[in-house]
Amino acid sequence: MSRTRIRIGTRKARWTRAGVTGAAAVAIAAALCPAATAARPAAAVPAPVPERYTAQRLVWEPCAPGATLECAPMTVPRDWHHPGAGADLTVRVSRQRAADPARRRGTLLMAAGGPGGEGLIRPTGFVKAAPKIAEVYDVVGFDQRGVGRSTRVSCQDDAEFADFFAGDFRDRSPAALRRVLDNSRKFVAGCQARSGDLLPYLTTEQTARDVDLYRALLGERKISYYGPSYASKLGATYATLFPRHVERVVLDSNIAFDGTWEEFEKGQPMSFQRRFEEDFLPWLARYDDVYHYGRTPAEAKARWEERRRALGARPLTIGGGRTLAPNQFDNGAILALYKGGTFPLLAGALAALDHWDTATDEERRNVDLIFGRYLSKEFLAEFFSVTCNDTPWTRDTAQWVRQTAEDAARYPLMGARALAFAATCAAWPAGTAPRVDVTGEGLPPVLMLNSLHDPATYYEGARRAHRALRGSRLVTVTGGDHGQYLEKNACVDAIVDRYLLTGAAPDRDTTCAATPLPVPAGHTAR
């Protein structure tokens, strides 16, 4: 990686509190403009960046008392395409300096998934898990526009958030359908009332331009990038818009960024059902001696449905006064399926519900952990803002009612709730985000990671994204976890570390075996 940095006046840019002034600000502004062919239409290329952004100084302070991770506010335009219009936004950024400055080779930026996840503090955990990378890279993060400590979007209060997920999405009665559609419209109305002037500018493309301003203010001509889940789409977008500004890119558990959000989300009911029926239920049945949920996957599934019906007839009150009804039952499983390591927690919670009246305090806490804490109103506000804004959505709610009826019958775990999510984007104000076609043109080999049974970023979509990102290398992991790097898979970690440290990507697509699913405590081998 080139160690050359943008010059600030007569001195090289360094980790200081000095601002960017004069000719350097002009150079940064020019560097922030991508190739005119990167996005369509051509008019989407933004205007020159005003000096008030490129000349700003990042004032670093510890993110928390005694922390080595430093944080700073960064001012960005509300709209990169019209940077003089509207109030500015604040994006909070962070940095963890390389542990071995003498061997420092550059900056690695990491982003959060979602959209809706917070990334500001993530470098702290990353450097602990990847000490070889932390020795030679400054690891930096940020809360993207709309979330966390950055300028935030707001759409709901606590009661409205709870109501959005209340009841049973499988209920297809006219009254139930009206309630779902009404809640989706209320969600959009709440966003407009609380954050209307911010909503159009919460897009992946706008965030990618925030990232490039951050790169420039750090004084780096190029950065490397690690992004899991939604951050794979952000990374692919950033690399497409600014191919000359990236050194190495790792995209982990990939959104199908070759198409629209609508196309991608239509595939998730299938992939979550596959993970549930082909991975979790067989695992649960294998350990019937521990959980007593059935000796075959079919028996375990029947027991699951029995419990779900019971919660529909009589919801439970769990920790903090939260309600456990059918939708929360599904949501807990959806979240637990992301990692095989969470299977014992989900199974233990299911077993505890079978003797709820005599459940221990620890079992009750586990039930609340699994079934009582799905997403948040802050996450949901950013999630819909980005996914509804980025790409077009079908506006015909009657079509969504028909489509999701099929999904609910075939893939009930997530297909049942698909109407609530699709109807929200169908009611969203039409977005104006430019289309960004990911091609891989002008990029070094990009490293992509994905598991075969990933429930959230399904393998079929990752394969399409891989084909679109020409020159990329795909590492296929034979299991089903979401998120591959730094998850105790020595094969994956070795490939990624070698790539980030030396630039050497695999010569061709390759495969790593998954780490085994956990064996629960108390299991007696048959």
List descriptors.
disordered N terminus; alpha/beta; 16 strands; globular; 526 residues; ten-stranded mixed beta sheet; 21 helices
Describe the structure.
This protein is 43% helix and 13% strand. With 526 residues, the protein is of the alpha/beta class. The model is unreliable at 1-31 and 34-43 (pLDDT under 50). Among the domains are: 7-104 and 113-153 and 207-220, no CATH class; 270-371, no CATH class. It has helices at 22-31, 51-54, 122-129, 131-136, 158-164, 174-195, 204-217, 230-241, 261-266, 268-286, 288-291, 297-313, 326-336, 343-353, 361-371, 377-390, 397-410, 412-415, 418-426, 459-468, 490-502, and strands spanning 7-8, 11-12, 39-40, 61-62, 70-76, 89-96, 106-110, 137-142, 223-229, 246-254, 316-317, 323-324, 435-436, 447-451, 473-477, 510-512. The protein has a 10-stranded mixed β-sheet, sandwiched between helices. The chain is globular. It is built from 21 helices and 16 strands. It comes from Streptomyces albireticuli. Keywords: Hydrolase, Signal. InterPro entries: AB_hydrolase_fold, Pept_S33_TAP-like_C, Serine_prot/Carboxylest_S33. GO terms for molecular function: hydrolase activity. Belongs to the peptidase S33 family.
